């Protein structure tokens, strides 16, 4: 067995088993990583991959290694985790599509799809074992079943999640940062105050990164009765577009009732986060810094995207106006990346998932206390996206555009109504702040779509135009 998780640099060559194998795998990764969906660095070349730490979860044949590598791309170097399997005989089908490298007659492959190997992860959490520097734990009070087989979920995501039987889902965080992951931290805090709107956290896996205990995986209850919020919302829009003559409130698939319940659930979660983790006041200086961040972003994006130019003066005014918002502004832990793809409708109500925060933001930024209105703004933007996504790439159709606009309006209002009812204060009353947050998000979307999906640029641009003309949403 090799030693606990420590930087490879500090170890003598030959001191650890599988070292040569790990080196060979790392050498193959610059080629292999960019083809992986979860790899966040596809925008630039991988200039080097260095093993930071590794552990042997299963030794012999088959072999299961856990690997943390540092991926270098010009000016940045980020740690990613991999599960690597190998077998000398009977290589499973799944291995061929995810082969990383062949070493001495053995095929090494990304092992998340190999159910014979991944069952060891759940069993180790059930047993609460320390395996070669990795801590497998169940959460207090959780009795985990052993021996379940897992399959990776196929929905688009930035991490890799394995579903065990129909009971558990294990998320392996791909890009790591030292410390307890914010997703786990907030799930634990919310469970402690009895939140009804989360999938219960049941276990975790952690290693060591930069000398700090670091979360690499989180196990939660898997909801078999769950429907994705984005799927529900876009189905409702599609139904309406299929027959634009029907009023939305008369349509079977009207979403407004759900939007309102979702608003109530988000308000509940915000209140629970305040109870569990407290609040802080942001003063005028902090407000000023926020305004400055928004203005800077606007300048950067406007320099890249000419289509934004006509809106720049209005956007500037909207951000400047935040300076007149009364201080202090209450800050708290928030979700940080809330949209319809992060919520699940179950028979028991809405659940909120994935509290890790904005993937592009720094860890410090993600962990900061923020106004709850950020999440409200995120969800309001998501309603616009759900409504307009069917218009992308189609010739202009005033009737369908009208349908999309009124669906979005109806559901944004319903969401705010539901939120206000539970929160006791209406997010629309903080109109200047909410408007600025929505517009800031839309400016970010403009830069994202410009870089990744030029066809979609019309979605945030149309929203900016709407918000500007309406005054507020
Ligand atoms: N507890 C759960 N029950 C059922 N499905 C889930 C659960 N947790 C996550 N999912 C599904 O997995 C997807 C990705 O989960 P998420 O936590 O958002 O991961 P990521 O960080 O990769 O975005 C969700 O959109 C949802 O479809
Ligand atoms: Mg997610």
From TrEMBL:
Pfam families (UniProt xref): Mak_N_cap
InterPro entries in the cross-refs: Kinase-like_dom_sf, Mak_N_cap
Pathway info: Glycan biosynthesis; glycogen biosynthesis
Domain Maltokinase N-terminal cap: start-end pairs: 32-114
Reactions that this protein is recorded to catalyse: D-maltose + ATP = alpha-maltose 1-phosphate + ADP + H(+)
An example Gene Ontology molecular-function term: kinase activity
UniProt KW keywords: ATP-binding, Carbohydrate metabolism, Glycogen biosynthesis, Glycogen metabolism, Kinase, Nucleotide-binding, Transferase
Signal sequence coordinates: none
Any one GO biological process: glycogen biosynthetic process
Enzyme Commission number, as recorded: 2.7.1.175
Family statement drawn from the similarity comment of this UniProt entry: Belongs to the aminoglycoside phosphotransferase family.
Quaternary assembly: Monomer.
Protein name listed in UniProt: Maltokinase
Organism: Aeromicrobium fastidiosum
């Amino acid at each position: 067995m090799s030693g606990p998780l420590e930087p490879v640099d500090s170890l003598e060559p030959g001191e650890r088993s599988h070292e040569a194998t790990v080196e060979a795998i790392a050498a193959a990764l610059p080629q292999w990583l960019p083809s992986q969906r979860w790899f966040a660095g596809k925008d630039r070349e991988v200039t080097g991959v260095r093993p930071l730490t590794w552990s042997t979860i299963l030794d012999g044949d088959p072999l299961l290694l856990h690997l943390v590598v540092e991926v270098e791309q010009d000016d940045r170097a980020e740690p990613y985790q991999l599960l690597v399997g190998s077998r000398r005989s009977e290589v499973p089908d799944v291995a061929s599509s995810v082969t990383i490298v062949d070493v001495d007659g053995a095929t090494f492959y990304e092992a998340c799809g190999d159910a014979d190997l991944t069952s060891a992860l759940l069993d180790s959490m059930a047993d609460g074992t320390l395996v070669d520097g990795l801590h497998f734990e169940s959460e207090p009070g959780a009795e985990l079943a052993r021996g379940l087989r897992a399959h990776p979920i196929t929905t688009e995501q930035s991490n890799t999640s394995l579903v065990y039987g129909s009971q558990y889902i294990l998320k392996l965080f791909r890009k790591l940062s030292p410390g307890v992951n914010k997703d786990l931290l907030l799930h634990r805090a919310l469970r402690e105050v009895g939140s009804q709107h989360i999938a219960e956290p049941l276990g975790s896996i952690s290693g060591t990164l930069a000398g700090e205990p670091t979360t690499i995986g989180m196990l939660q209850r898997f909801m078999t009765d769950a429907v994705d919020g984005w799927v529900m919302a876009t189905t409702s829009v599609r139904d309406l577009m299929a027959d634009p003559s029907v009023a939305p409130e008369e349509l079977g698939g009207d979403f407004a009732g759900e939007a309102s319940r979702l608003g109530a659930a988000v308000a509940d979660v915000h209140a629970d986060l305040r109870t569990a983790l407290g609040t802080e006041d942001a003063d005028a200086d902090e407000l000023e810094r926020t305004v400055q961040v928004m203005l800077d972003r606007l300048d950067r994006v406007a320099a890249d995207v000419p289509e934004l130019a006509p809106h720049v003066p209005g956007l500037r005014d909207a951000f400047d106006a935040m300076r007149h918002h009364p201080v202090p502004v209450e800050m708290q832990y928030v979700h940080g990346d809330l949209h319809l793809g992060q919520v699940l409708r179950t028979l028991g109500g809405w659940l909120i998932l994935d509290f890790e925060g904005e993937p592009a933001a720094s860890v410090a930024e993600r962990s900061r206390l923020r106004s709850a209105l950020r999440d409200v703004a995120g969800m309001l933007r998501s309603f616009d996206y759900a409504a307009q996504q069917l218009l992308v790439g189609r010739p202009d159709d005033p009737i369908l555009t009208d349908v999309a606009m009124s669906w979005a309006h109806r559901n944004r209002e319903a969401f705010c109504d539901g939120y206000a009812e539970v929160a006791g204060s209406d997010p629309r009353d903080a109109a200047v702040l909410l408007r600025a947050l929505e517009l800031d998000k839309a400016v970010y979307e403009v830069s994202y779509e410009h870089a990744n999906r030029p066809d979609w640029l019309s979605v945030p641009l149309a929203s900016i135009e709407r918000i500007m003309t309406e005054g507020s949403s």
